[in-house]
Amino acid sequence: MINVLQILLFIVFSQSVEYSILWNENSRLTWADFKGKPDKNIDAAALTASGITVDLSAKTTQTELLNFNVLVEARFYPDKSWYKRESASSFVLAHEQLHFDITELHARKLRRILDHANLTVNIKREVSKLNDIINEELKEMQQEYDRDSNFSRNKDTQRKWQDFVHNELRKLSKYK
Hints:
Oligomer: single chain
Number of helices: 3
Number of domains: 1
Radius of gyration: 18 Å
Structural class: alpha+beta
Shape: elongated
Low-confidence stretches: 1-15
């Protein structure tokens, strides 16, 4: 008997579909994309809410994976992203864009892993585990980026991060 498995994993905020912007190398974020209400209790100029979505469909028997399709996307969530008008600048916006770029970098890493993975009838669990690993790496890199750049205040480090991330995206261009 053939089982059809349909899974949609939303990694960042909820199980429901919400408005989001798909990462696109030809489109950059603008302050108009940040629609959330600023948190006055946080000492930050802006917050970028982004994450990786995974859409998996597969056909299996009890013992064999017949075929599958996985769609991995980096998304930006406008309603959960915000900025403080008094702190807005092109430099801060570039910092926030790089957070979104780091999300795309990890989406590409997941696509590469899935491209080379030996998946089985346990594909749901296997993809979920790989996704969890990538999301942990994503979280760690986002935190390291903010620490190193002092939340965009260290302009030299900010530029180094931009060069690094853009170089890594180029290396993984096969997986865009």
